[in-house]
Amino acid sequence: MGHYQLIASQGCGSAIVEMALELCGISYRVEILPYLEPGPGRDRLLALNPTGQVPVLTLPDGAVMTESAAIILHLADRFPDAALAPPPEDPERPLFLRWLLFLVAQIYPTFNYGDDPARWLGDMAAAADRLRASTDEHRLSLWQVMEEAAAATPWFIGEHMTAIDIYVAVMRHWRPGPAVFDARFPKLAGAALAVGRDPRLAAVLARNM
Fold first, then answer.
1. By C-alpha distance, which of 166, 187, 194, 182 is closest to 104?
2. How far is the CA of 203 from the CAs of 33, 118, 195, 200, 207, in angstroms?
3. Average pLDDT per run of 10 along the chain, which is 209 residues long?
4. What is the model's pLDDT at position 126?
5. What is residue 99's predicted lDDT score, i.e. its pLDDT?
6. Most exposed: 57, 70, 181, 192, by fewest CB within 10 Å?
7. Do the beta carbons of residue 17 and residue 6 sit within 8 Å?
């Protein structure tokens, strides 16, 4: 059997999967690619994931997985001791699934469209600026929904860290940045900062952000 192999990019959501692999305590390899840069690396990435996005995780048997939430749920099932997610019988499992999907289906797309508005609007500069601004504004409202739902504990759900806290720890570094995020969403920021203090995760977070 081979290793888990992660294709990742600096500053991207692939850091979430890398941190999850650390918690699983398994052997894995990381290949950093500038995923938007044309060349052999991107060509190989496109062959594995036609969207050209990271993360891409190759499993020991050679199967390829994309989509961070799918990877997280697979790892949670495969390595339950990592506690990436509450187990299926846990009453907190539905809550975990709700907010995991909220992160990837609601908040993540605001970056997909706002990061490169010219991709969607061409040379319509004013419209592109507005798309960036409006998606940034909408993201703040979505984070506020999560802030109001967050448990008043060190972690988003209950007494234990889950993959949701890892997502927040990484995404906190993206627009609008940690200073604004921490001021507006203190409960979420508390969980994110606690993730960063975990010695298993601190170096991964620092290297990626």
1. 166
2. 19, 34, 11, 7, 6
3. 89 97 97 90 94 96 98 98 97 97 96 76 79 93 96 88 98 97 97 96 94
4. 82
5. 98
6. 70
7. yes
CA 91 to chain centre: 24
pLDDT at 152: 77
As a whole number of angstroms, the distance between CA 53 and CA 36 comes to 9
- pTM for the full model? 0.95
- At residue 190, the pLDDT reads 96
Structure tokens at 114: 């706002």
Find out whether 202 and 196 touch, Cβ atoms under 8 Å. Answer: yes
Q: How far apart are CA 142 and CA 157, in angstroms?
A: 17
**Two tokens, residue 93:** 């499992």
Q: What is the dihedral of CA 83, 81, 207, 165, to 10 degrees?
A: 10
